[in-house]
Sequence to fold (175 residues):
Amino acid sequence: MRHHTSTSRDRPGSVLERGTGHPGSAPPPKHSDCGGTTTLITDLPYGLRAAEVAREAVAVALHGTETDLLDDARLIGSELATNAFASGNPPLVLCVDVKTSAVDGLEVEITVTDGGCPDLAPTSPPGPQEEAVSGRGLVIVDALADAWSLSTGTHGTRAWCRLKRQASPSPPSTH
Fold:
């Protein structure tokens, strides 16, 4: 199965498209002090590899960010991709928006969409059974994300979350 990955900066005409099947082959976006938005969009395989490909793509989109944020975002991307495969239909698509601002800090939005599901899923994380080996995905997303939502339908499902990190205070100037 071929994957299509696109990354773009918020400048017109700055789009990179890859069809290699490896989201890691796209160059990492550069984050500048002046701020901006970088978006990575990739098709996920409809299968057991969806979570792995999602983790790799999130790592590419967040290259150079702090380890804690990267770990949380990779786990969330993996969980959302797993849920889309387990509960939805193809196509599965991952979108990672990275917004940087010297004032607001770093904001990461992760969205996974799928082709819909015949049984509408709950919009709040159900408590997993104590002995269950699955069913914790939305609980994990709820615990790690600053905001999240799940919209389900027979023609499409969208799981979205936001992670925020405040801008580091500027060092005092020495004049």
